[in-house]
Amino acid sequence: MALNFDKTRERTLLDYLQRLQHNDAVLGYYQLQGLLFAMACSPETISDAEWFELIWLDDDPQFDEESDARDFYRLAVSLSTSVKETIRSQAYNPFGSRYSSQWQAELSQWCDGFLLGHQYLEDLWVFAIDTLNDQLIADDVNAVLSLATTFADLEYAQQLSFEEGIALT
Question: CA 128 → CA 40, 59, 88, 91, 152, distances in Å?
Fold first, then answer.
């Protein structure tokens, strides 16, 4: 997926996230990627410390050791940097080239994280779009949000695809 986020880092981050999810303390991996994508696409730069607070579902991060907390933070920031780099190189694809219908749950989670990020940044986007006064950009942003909202609700997206005869692949 990423230029500087290798499989070893990804596996370590996934391990941390799985442990933290047992306590319902943190977003899932694909939700985190969607959130980071939203942060990277923000009309203004968002600091790592600012978005990092958004990934916690519980007020208190659940780490036994301070070194684990630091490692987790570094891994999350490394993933954020990687997302930004792949966006800049126009190579961002959170699911790789072999996306299939088996990944519908992951797409739903990614969209959920993206919408969380957009909701957090909504005032910035409203201001930026109003300042640009460009209806095409406003329409594009609204279309992306509508699609993300549809796919964040996996059951609805599956029902819609079934009714329309569309394969979600």
Answer: 15, 31, 20, 25, 25
